[in-house]
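FAQ

Q: What does a record look like?
A: Structure on top, sequence underneath. For example:
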């Protein structure tokens, strides 16, 4: 199904999907099962998205295995209760083969722009320099919010004479053995990396700006007999998945409705720290000054023990600049380093499209989102007909599995596609409808721990709005997206 360079020779597909992470795979599978025509445009040479790009030591998921997979493609053979990066990527590849979508994935196709052709009611997507064009009735963005690494804006970063890279672009060609290594940040990636490399490096300097809340991670190897039992009796895995989902869903009560419950969790986290860190001065450095849940709650059994190793130093003095020889902190100390690792997260709260997307009247998506991204149901944007964003604004979670949200969105989009493919029609969400929806969301978010917990996080855009998280139970979102609510849209015929 390879598209041709010439527009006239290109078949008009039912939909184009950009990206082959979990979102792109889910949409491709749904369209394959529905017998619709589609193509997945992937800029890399393999599938996987986040789980292809993040190959740093210790990379793993903080959502239990049975919940971090498609409901329609359960994996009874997870080796651990929490999946590791390589196993997740293997699962995604297995899904691509199982559902026969690989032949519709076009690798090494970097999208340069997308434009809605209003008279024809189709989307034109240019590849590279525009020599190759794909056309479709609908465009589905599956690029995700955690696909563009954020390098730290630190003075002198370009002057460093050693090796410097982001955790999402791990340099496997660089040996760590015996090297003076610095890692900037103590977020989700850092707490996995530190235990994994502490015994390899000569010395590890961890530059902490804000300490995270850490709780115990019930991670264990799944015995073969249990995996065999799940394979033979799938109902057991379904029951386990329902239990795990319900437990994680209950956290939404504390995050969004009864913040007082977080005091109990916070006490447990403090106890966990006290058991693992007996040194009072180190414990003081690790003590967060905000309510648990305000920033992402991290799970690790190995981070605290790693901090006690003799070759590991936790540095809490603010970074002043990066020098040719290392990092200078504001106390005047210059930390000599051979390698600097940026564990500084992703462009999420204010991230737009990785390429220009032009809607009605030449409206460009990133310009439209200059004050922060917003969408209706986190999926459609006014002025961009038949354009759907997977894991868009305010669909991320602080308590449960994104796979559940992705499947909910996929159901909504498929409901829309059934109408779009039947006739030459385009659906556009009115701006007022979108604004009313987001005003309601922000009102809900105003009382959540993410907005009131006293921290600065990547959940919040520069204008102070939480453009990242869903402020309710996931089953509420599932209900809202159970069908395409065509009555809320303008029909362009």
């Amino acid at each position: 199904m390879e598209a041709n360079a010439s527009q006239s020779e290109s078949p008009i597909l039912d939909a184009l999907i950009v990206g082959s992470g979990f979102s792109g795979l889910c949409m491709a599978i749904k369209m394959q099962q529905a017998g619709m025509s589609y193509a997945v445009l992937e800029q890399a040479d393999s599938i996987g998205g986040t789980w292809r790009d993040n190959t740093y030591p210790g990379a793993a998921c903080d959502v239990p295995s049975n919940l971090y997979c498609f409901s329609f493609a359960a994996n009874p053979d997870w080796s651990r209760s929490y999946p590791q990066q390589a196993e997740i990527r293997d699962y995604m590849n297995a899904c691509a083969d199982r559902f026969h979508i690989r032949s519709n994935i076009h690798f090494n196709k970097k999208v340069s722009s997308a434009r809605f052709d209003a008279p024809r009611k189709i989307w034109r997507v240019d590849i590279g320099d525009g020599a190759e064009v794909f056309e479709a009735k609908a465009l589905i963005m599956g690029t995700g919010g955690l696909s563009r690494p954020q390098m730290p804006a630190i003075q002198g970063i370009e002057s460093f004479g050693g090796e410097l890279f982001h955790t999402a672009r791990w340099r496997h060609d660089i040996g760590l053995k015996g090297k003076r290594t610095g890692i900037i940040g103590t977020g989700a990636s850092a707490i996995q990396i530190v235990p994994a490399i502490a015994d390899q490096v000569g010395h590890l300097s961890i530059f902490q700006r804000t300490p995270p809340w850490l709780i115990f991670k019930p991670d264990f190897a799944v015995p073969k007999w249990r995996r065999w039992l799940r394979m033979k009796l799938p109902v057991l895995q379904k029951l386990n998945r329902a239990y795990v989902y319900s437990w994680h869903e209950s956290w939404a009560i504390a995050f969004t409705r009864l913040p007082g419950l977080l005091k109990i969790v916070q006490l447990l986290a403090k106890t966990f720290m006290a058991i693992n860190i007996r040194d009072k001065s180190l414990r003081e450095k690790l003590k967060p000054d905000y309510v648990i849940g305000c920033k992402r709650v991290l799970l690790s059994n190995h981070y605290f023990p790693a901090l006690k190793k003799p070759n590991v130093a936790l540095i809490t003095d603010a970074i002043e600049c990066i020098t040719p020889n290392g990092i200078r902190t504001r106390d005047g100390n210059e930390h000599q380093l051979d390698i600097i690792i940026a564990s500084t997260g992703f462009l999420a709260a204010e991230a737009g499209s990785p390429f220009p997307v032009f809607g009605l009247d030449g409206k460009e998506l990133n310009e439209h989102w200059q004050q922060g991204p917003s969408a209706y149901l986190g999926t459609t944007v006014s002025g961009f007909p038949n354009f759907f964003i997977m894991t868009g604004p305010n669909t991320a979670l602080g308590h449960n599995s994104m796979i559940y949200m992705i499947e909910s969105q996929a159901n909504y989009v498929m409901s829309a596609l059934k109408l779009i493919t039947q006739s030459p029609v385009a659906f556009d969400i009115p701006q007022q409808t979108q604004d009313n929806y987001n005003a309601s969301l922000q009102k809900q978010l105003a009382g959540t721990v993410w907005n009131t917990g006293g921290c600065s996080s990547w959940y919040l855009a520069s204008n102070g709005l939480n453009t990242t998280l869903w402020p309710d139970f996931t089953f509420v979102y599932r209900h809202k997206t159970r069908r395409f609510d065509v009555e809320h849209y303008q029909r362009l015929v």
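Q: Is there anything notable about this one?
A: The radius of gyration is 23 Å.
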